[in-house]
Amino acid sequence: MGIREYIPGIGIAVGCILVLLIIVWLCRRSRRPAEIDLMDGHDFEKYCALLLKHRGFLDVEITKGSGDYGVDILAEKDGVTYAIQCKCYNQPVGVKAVQEAYAGRDYYDRMVGAVLTNQYFTAPAVEAAKRLKILLWDRGYLESMIAEGGREH
Fold it and tell me: Within this chain, do residues 137 and 82 fall inside the same structural domain, yes or no?
């Protein structure tokens, strides 16, 4: 019996494994956003702080709730300091979040300001972020953070 007799069986086995992996990936991907969407603001901040730690950020600190000048997390990575505004919304994030990240970046004397959300941004928010040099980390970016280094908590 030659190798040619085994090729169809190997192809079927590889195909089944690939289908199984795709099903597992889709199930995990679809479950996570729903969990994130159900979090309250403070839980979302804690979750984002843990994701940042898993992605190699250092000195990750959640700011106090009031008087934080619109910044929820302070962190550092590769010598760059960040002021991050977290928004767990059920609709697109607008300009106000960008303004808060901008003010907080300067207040905390950080190099980079960012808004991290479970949603996407309005067109005016994107335009404001470009002008104010604020990073926008939307739902797609958040999902990539989860896939690359985050763990379910």
Answer: yes
CA 40 vs CA 71, 114, 118, 122: distances in Å:
16, 20, 12, 21
Question: What is the count of structural domains for the chain?
Answer: 2
Q: What's the rounded Cα separation, in Å, for the pair 135 and 137?
A: 6
Burial (CB count <10 Å: 0-12, 13-18, 19+), residue 105? buried
| Residues contacting residue 116 through CB under 8 Å, at least 6 positions apart | 48, 73, 84, 85, 86, 87, 137, 141, 142
The secondary structure of residue 94, as a DSSP letter, is: -
Interior angle at CA 40, CA 37 and CA 43, nearest 5: 100
Same domain as 65, residue 11: no
Task: Enumerate the β-bridge partners of residue 45.
Answer: none
pLDDT in tens, the chain (153 residues): 566 676 676 667 666 676 666 665 555 544 455 688 888 888 999 999 999 999 999 999 999 866 667 799 999 999 999 999 999 999 999 999 999 999 999 999 999 999 999 999 999 999 999 999 999 999 999 998 888 765 443
Q: What is the pTM of this model?
A: 0.74
